[in-house]
Amino acid sequence: MSAQKLSIAQAVRDAMRDEMRLDPTVLVLGEDVGVDGGVFRATEGLIEEFGAERVIDTPLAESGIIGLSVGLAATGFRPVAEMQFMGFVYPAINQIFSHAARMRNRTRGRLSTPMVIRMPYGGGIHPPEHHSESYEALFLHTPGLKVLVPSNPYDAKGLLISAIRSGDTVAFMEPKRIYRAFREEVPDGAYTVPMGKAAIAREGSDCSLLAWGAMTRVCLDAAEALSAEGVSAEVVDLRSLNPLDRETIFESVSKTGRAVIVHEAPRTAGFGAELAADISEHLLLELLAPVRRVCGWDTVFPLSKLEKHYLPNRGRILSAVRSTMEF
Amino acid sequence: MSAQKLSIAQAVRDAMRDEMRLDPTVLVLGEDVGVDGGVFRATEGLIEEFGAERVIDTPLAESGIIGLSVGLAATGFRPVAEMQFMGFVYPAINQIFSHAARMRNRTRGRLSTPMVIRMPYGGGIHPPEHHSESYEALFLHTPGLKVLVPSNPYDAKGLLISAIRSGDTVAFMEPKRIYRAFREEVPDGAYTVPMGKAAIAREGSDCSLLAWGAMTRVCLDAAEALSAEGVSAEVVDLRSLNPLDRETIFESVSKTGRAVIVHEAPRTAGFGAELAADISEHLLLELLAPVRRVCGWDTVFPLSKLEKHYLPNRGRILSAVRSTMEF
Amino acid sequence: MPKSIVYEARTERLEILDLEGKVDLELMPEVDQELALKLYRHMIRMRAYDSKALRLQRQGRMGTWPPSLGQEAVQAAVGMAMDEKDWLIPSFREPGTMIAHGVPAHLIYAHWAGDERGACYPENIRCFPPAVPVGSQWQHGAGVGLSLKLRKERAAAVVFGGDGSTSEGDFHEGLNAAGVFKANTVFVIQNNQWAISVPLSHQTAAETLAQKAHAYGVPGIQVDGNDVFAMTLVAREALERARSGGGPTLIEAVTYRLGDHTTADDASRYRDEAEVSYWEKRDPIRRLRLYLESEGLWDEAQEEDFVAEVNRWVDEQVEAFESMAPADPASIFDDMYSELPSRLVEQRELLLEEVSR
Amino acid sequence: MPKSIVYEARTERLEILDLEGKVDLELMPEVDQELALKLYRHMIRMRAYDSKALRLQRQGRMGTWPPSLGQEAVQAAVGMAMDEKDWLIPSFREPGTMIAHGVPAHLIYAHWAGDERGACYPENIRCFPPAVPVGSQWQHGAGVGLSLKLRKERAAAVVFGGDGSTSEGDFHEGLNAAGVFKANTVFVIQNNQWAISVPLSHQTAAETLAQKAHAYGVPGIQVDGNDVFAMTLVAREALERARSGGGPTLIEAVTYRLGDHTTADDASRYRDEAEVSYWEKRDPIRRLRLYLESEGLWDEAQEEDFVAEVNRWVDEQVEAFESMAPADPASIFDDMYSELPSRLVEQRELLLEEVSR
Ligand SMILES: Cc1ncc(C[n+]2csc(CCOP(=O)(O)OP(=O)(O)O)c2C)c(N)n1
Ligand SMILES: Cc1ncc(C[n+]2csc(CCOP(=O)(O)OP(=O)(O)O)c2C)c(N)n1
Ligand SMILES: [Mg+2]
Ligand SMILES: [Mg+2]
What we know:
The complex is a heterotetramer, with 2 copies of chain A and 2 copies of chain C. By secondary structure, chain A is α/β, with parallel strands linked by helices. In chain A, 36% of the residues lie in helices and 21% in strands. In chain A, helix 2 links the parallel strand 2 (26-30) and strand 3 (55-57).
């Protein structure tokens, strides 16, 4: 297979395009996904190739987009729905949580809703209100949904194709802050990255940094700085939050004896709490220090002038790791 | 002050009635709250006393109920909105999370939305689908909301009055399973139970059981059974999940060295995870055993025939405490 | 043209069968007598099926049940007008349509008795499970209608909801999307005048629900929902329009909930006896029977025989659902995902352990 | 009456000022020339204010900005028709109304430049902050209108939204509730034909947006939104109805977004130059100027003077927001609650520690 250097946004687009070529039941729908090619250009060129019957500009109505997708998915299509920003998914929560997440279970398998809900998420782009949010914890607490968050172009394409094929409703979170930050080799044609497998983004022996999406890169950066201090940090890119690769997580933390979890969402009842609780319960005797969390504050995501004081950054991660090392 | 024996449902009603007598800006609105007196009779008699301008039967639209409340609250009223069941709050999530929770912060104090969102929650009444859910984790992860959950009539009345007076948007969760299960002395007239204070429902020295709402009583029952086994369990009724009384929690767990958290909502990323993570981080060296969680499974809440296999029960709590004691 | 009219609209109402059982032959030149009998039998059957559920509930053998008493004509007419290939997306008060569309009656009992297997219909039956979150099903109707259109199937999606459900935002988004996409969808409102204790006048200031169609550029029509012939005509026309790519229709079927909202409700708390008796006179079954008798198609003897047959059938349904093997406790994990994540495998084992203790 | 008409409706459209600046004196017998000048000045001011924001954005001194170019007449007319006691609930593209209603112009700049203090208006100004989640503000308009009604204040709530926002369920729930409660609310749709890249024809199959009012038993009217006189008349009438307890009105103001959706958008990707030039001919400022000139109320010299004044004013606004003291980092915790929970007190201290390092 040949390959090209692609950004995450391009890799996402290629995933849809390649899968649509293979599977005629795959549809793309959402606001501005057609002629405009998506406000982040993540659906660029799709309407030209597949037409307006497979790349559907919908009315401005998130509940409607998911409600339509439920109807389409239960009767044989595989919709890939876009929420323009994760901050605008709330109007669709009833359709996602009360219907898409439950259909298979409540009909004991008779109907199901295989669909992907693509959502650019997270901070770092200095936009207006409601454009920077990370709501993964809500989706992870709701039974019946899968949640994937790539941190690089290769995974973005491979995980999105896995998501489309998965048979379940998948929340697919795209780190918009690094949508176009860098390019990496991405194979042409469809391939999959398995769900439920974390990636060791950097090996280390003193402390495990657990992260996903854009925070993976901040952790890699912190790990680099830590190595100068003589601390060997392992960065685990979780990628797939449900199904979750607890084996890799437990293995890493068993090895290092220390864990710092990093996410953008508010700390309280964020997914970091689940990871910390799980690790603390299972590895109590192996922990050399308490599991620390570096997260967004328990506040509204601030507007751009103060945004940098909200998002987890290298400094905060370093402090957390140091306190862990010194415990 | 004289007192009467009231159920939780009656105490809730009395709280609204007494506060409406004192404060003309308090309104009650929701589906069937007027003439019908609420499907659980929690607003019975209010429309007769206060009229249809203060006890408002709304159209069947949860987003509308909260959207109206935002408009009412920001301009001087104190709405007490009812969601008929917590399972039906999803359509209102955008209004609650994007607006009510944020108004004060995003206007730096100029406008605020003092309101209470009453929600009967939880299992145990064998109803149709969507009538048994507990979504507190979603509200606790969302900055800007207070979350209260009484477990008895006295607290129900006093906490609800605190909520109405609080100045913030408060999610008030009512354990419908024990709405009418028992009666206790409740003082006449308005009084408050402070937010942010947990209650020690039973003292003990070997293991802390942390719970709220209907699960408090299941824990009390388990504690009784444990005492026969020679295990002294302390039951902490959290009551106020945000603000949270971490001092009382930490004190209790420091004393016992062991903690089991019990809630009805699914385990993964439930509020139990936050508590376990927080306790494990702060008391790592004092813990004699890993913090355990006894929760709902990570499944859809089952229909009545299998409901008993879903909800945390005495047996499950006993096993968790025993495994903690034997660790 | 400084002051001009940019939109003009009217909303029609159809009635064919009057209270005395007389048919307006201009509107319905050929009444299909075969069908009339079929509809009548189905409505009788459904009334017995419904009242049995209420008795079972009182005996603790059934969960909360939403009665259909008085709404049989809407449900029967739509159900009988549908083809096998049409999809049904019910709300929670349409057993009469579901059963006419082929859903095994005992499964509906099982569902409301608290068994998820009751929503696992035979594979060839094109029917969604009931939707309890009010209004949330409207968009599924739009989505299925779009699905059929995209596949170029000559079939329609029929989605039901109550008068109260028209107040939810999802009604709006569903109708609007169906209008834009010209989806193969028929939207049927069972306007039974009440949403639990809230009368229609507190639900909306609109004079009719059918006129809400004007907001979406979609044809809307009001119909006497207790008039099974008018319902049939309107349903057929809307189904035909949908199947042939003519786009969606909104039908407001004006009927009345003669019973309580559900077995958990007591309607006497909030409504007058006088209103109930007004509507009892408009009972859809009575009207049809008057017609059938006047045409010599039905008599007391036939009624007796048929009622006996129906009672046997109802008993069979009870027997069928009550003799289902108890559901496996671990089945609450089944079908949560296409394959169970390891965390759930673990939880499932814990439950099995607990159960086997 | 077997087939009958149960609802009849028409939707009117009002225009007064034609493209050449001529006024229909039958519809507007006394044009208030004072007001005409006031409106003109405000529109000129707003256009300068808006284009300055675009320049600031290109220079990195402003965040994402949603331009109002071409929509000045709607915003000015409604703003000028409002009283101090009326509440304004904007969407995100109404600086012209907000400023007319008394919101300090530099605060709006500050807000879109990424400073929360920009939504903390002076206490006496009855205005909500912009609502970015599209459509979510409609219900606030209904709620504030109900609030005013319950308090028996002679005042109205005016809530704005775009054509795209009418597709959200919250539009439906807001209009429906306002209809039921006869709330003191004026709903104004700025129909600028586009929701980012989606044209109105893909947003709804309804021929007009004004006709959506029929779904709620609420009066609706379409108006040429680039005709500041027609807008004024319609706004006044609706405001008067609302203030006097006559209930809500839905106004569809037909206008056009001459610029990009926001500074993050490139409209040339999805729409024709021809359409844009068609609408440029309908520029609301040009039409009003032709009128003023024909009446001898305005000339080139006045224009020049005024433009100079406006430019000074705009510069003052820039100066005012750019000279605000930097926001305290810890202020992100302020006003999260009426009193800060201990957990947040802790986090706030951590942040202050970090900042002081
Ligand atoms: C979203 C949601 N809110 C509230 C309820 C509780 N509830 C169940 S049925 C009902 C009334 C429904 O009225 P209508 O739509 O007219 O249908 P009907 O019951 O009359 O058939 C209500 C409020 C619910 N099931 N879902
Ligand atoms: C709920 C929600 N969905 C999507 C968006 C992204 N978005 C911002 S403005 C806009 C289009 C709005 O169109 P319209 O209502 O016509 O207003 P206009 O921008 O034309 O003034 C969209 C899709 C949003 N802000 N909120
Ligand atoms: Mg009804
Ligand atoms: Mg627009």
